[in-house]
Amino acid sequence: MDPIIFTPRLKLTLVTKAPKGSLELAHIHELRSDERAMWWSISGRDKSIEDTERIMKRWLPSSEAEENTYKVVYAVHTVLGSISGSVGGEPQSVEQGGKSTEFIGLVTLRALDADSLPLPEEFTLPAAVATTTLTLEIAYMFFPTAWGKGYATEAIEAVFGSCRRSRSFWTPFSKLYVRALVNPSNLASRRVMEKSGLKLKGVYEWSGKAVFLCGEWRERDSICIFGMHLLE
How far is the C-alpha of 30 from the C-alpha of 73, rounded, in Å? Predict the structure, then answer.
């Protein structure tokens, strides 16, 4: 995956580690402890730096040898001032990195694992294609000050572009399928998914262990399932 991606307004940096005391961990903790930024997350906001450390251990490869677990995290920054000649989603020269930036959010991609929400067959790929197609789940979060400006769509499209350019990263899989889980009431995120090319596959009526979402505990909820083939 591209270590740095520039778009006309953003700089995305690939996060490979976030050790205790690092600026990366501090930025991510500030974001994940923001109640409004985490309003739609079933994991809720982080109450301590230790909470954020635990999350990052799940999101990031534990070592270079674990790269084939297909975990991708990009930190998203606004670039203060225009970037001359940049093209959305295409990696630009590192020399442009001298611009001042401000951290505004994260985009994550993870292969499905034991922590992923299991879905009925009608929302998953047929077993026959599972040997060649890797299913990923995309998620994002931004500070409220960055909402409503198109940053999420711009960042996600840039990450998708990097995925397409980095075919060797996904070896031995030759195809990628991306899914997203969105609450029906989260209209802004539904629009982001649609603008990013994902299609609504249906609505799943979930029930299970209570989760804290949108200021209340819920044991059942509706979930919009979006999906798209990223590499075919």
Answer: 16
Structure token digits, residue 157:
């499209």
CA distance 25 to 222: 32
Closest residue by Cα to residue 69 from 131, 134, 121, 4? 134
Distance in angstroms (rounded) separating the CA atoms of residues 6 and 87: 8
Write the secondary structure of 188-199 as one string of H (helix), E (strand) and C (coil): HHHHHHHHCCCE
Coil, strand or helix: which one is 92?
coil
pTM for this entry = 0.88
Q: How far apart are CA 57 and CA 43, in angstroms?
A: 15
- pLDDT value at 156 more than 70: yes
Predicted confidence band of residue 98 (pLDDT cuts 50, 70, 90): low
The mean per-residue pLDDT over the stretch 23-39 comes to: 94
